[in-house]
Amino acid sequence: MARQTTGKRKRTLSQQQAAWALLAPFLATYCAFLVYPFFKGVWISLHDWNLLAVAMNPAAAKWVGLHNYVHMLWGRNITWGPLSHPLVQLLALAVLAGAFGLHRAGRLSGRSAIPIAIAALLIFLLLGFTPGEGGRWFDRRFWPTVGNTVLFVALAAPGTTIAALLLAAALNRETRMMAVFRTLFFLSQVLSVTVVTLIWQIMFSPTQGLIDNVIRVFGGSPVSWLTDPHFAMLAIVVTTIWWSLGIAMILFLAGMQDINREIYEAAALDNARGWKSFWFITLPNLKRTITLVVVLQIILHFQVFGQSHLMTQGGPDDRTQVLVRYIYQSAFRDSEIGRASAMAVFLFAIMSVFAVIQFLIGREKSE
């Protein structure tokens, strides 16, 4: 009996060793190309790291701690003064003193006095911060760039989700023509960003583009889509939706085909067909799939780079400048690797939040 137990332990140990041996190449590659570069990027973000200077002399990198993050998110040479905004700050102090006095007199309960006092104190403290001599608030291009990226995601992620959902509902039939249409709509997914942007640059051309030619047919005047500040971001959003439609459509088709057909048959007996069955049966059963697709689209679209870089070069007037492109310019055009790494860590933090959401959704679905 003891020999059998020992044999089992040896076999288990050998299986574990085999498993680690098979995992070792992947783990080594993963650590070399993902884990190490990430921590190296965090380390660089804590330095004043000029690309050209450090390339010539590795000792040229200067430790600055959180300076790159403070400059990016807060500003530089920010000072505090008790009367930077005297009228509002004195009013905040009066409210603070009034809340304290009313509480002492028994006219205001502690539950009400404490929030009022904290709010007044925060107003007094925060309004005391102002840029000093030669200082300024945060990186002037960073937050507008973040805003452009958030706007792009807010338009592209729901647009892709809704278009893919409707398209999947239309193609959810087991016929040869539907299979052909699914393939055609998925083909855009396999194209590179260079090919996609070239196609849509021609489509949006004010002289030879299909869109403006259609507008002319109906008596309208052509629009310079890629150079107009009001339409440039919309043009990039349309391009991205067309390009990323395929994967979302496939996920929705898989979810729809997983729904029991007997539910539709029972609903049909109650005269629930067409849009009624889609609204009351398909959508509730696709709740997890919709959430998963939205989260995936948000993660993917926060990484947008090629469309902005190739179609509009971030213009006009930085209206289509996105975060990844700004990181790229800061690193390789301005040689400010430390500042670019800090922005990359900021982007990683945003992506991590949505990655955690995706993980929780996947775990809930498996359970």
Q: How many domains make up the coordinates?
A: 3
Gross CATH architecture of the largest domain: Orthogonal Bundle
Q: Biggest sheet: strands side by side, in what order?
A: 1-2
Poorly predicted regions: none
Strand content: 5-15%
Keywords:
367 residues, MetI-like fold, 3 domains, two-stranded antiparallel sheet, 71% helix
What order do the helices and strands come in, and which of them pair?
Blueprint: H1 2-45, E1 47-48, H2 51-56, E2 62-63, H3 67-73, E3 75-80, H4 86-104, H5 110-126, E4 129-137, H6 142-171, H7 176-186, H8 193-203, H9 210-217, H10 232-257, H11 261-269, H12 275-285, H13 287-301, H14 306-312, H15 323-332, H16 337-366
Antiparallel strand pairs: 1-2, 3-4
What's this, in brief?
By secondary structure, the chain is mainly alpha-helical. The chain has helices at residues 2-45, 51-56, 67-73, 86-104, 110-126, 142-171, 176-186, 193-203, 210-217, 232-257, 261-269, 275-285, 287-301, 306-312, 323-332, 337-366; strands at residues 47-48, 62-63, 75-80, 129-137. It is built from 16 helices and 4 strands.
Give a structural overview.
- This protein is mainly alpha-helical and 367 residues long.
- The chain folds into three domains: 2-45; 79-137; 140-366, Orthogonal Bundle (MetI-like fold).
- 71% of the residues lie in helices and 5% in strands.
- The protein contains 16 helices and four strands.
- The protein has helices spanning 2-45, 51-56, 67-73, 86-104, 110-126, 142-171, 176-186, 193-203, 210-217, 232-257, 261-269, 275-285, 287-301, 306-312, 323-332, 337-366, and strands at 47-48, 62-63, 75-80, 129-137.
- Helix 6 (142-171) runs antiparallel to helix 13 (287-301).
- The chain is globular.
- The two termini are 39 Å apart.
